[in-house]
Amino acid sequence: MDISIRADRVWGSLIGGAVGDSLGYPVEFDTLEDIYAKFGRKGIRSHVIINGVAQISDDTQMTIFTADAILQGLKNNSGDIVESCVECLRRGYQQWAAMQVEDYPLTSIDNPSLLSHVRELYENREPGRACITALLSGEKGSIKTPVNMSKGCGGVMRVAPIGLCFSAGTAPQLIGRIAAEAAAITHGHELGYITAAALACAVHELVNEEDTRVCDAIRHALSVCKELFPNGQHIEELTALISKAIELAQDDISDAEAIMQLGEGWVAEEALAIAVFCAIRYENDMEGAVVAAVNHGGDSDSTGAITGNIVGARVGYNHMPLHLIKKLELIELLKVYAQKLSEQRYRGV
Ligand SMILES: [Mg+2]
Question: Can you give the pTM of this predicted structure?
Answer without folding.
Answer: 0.98
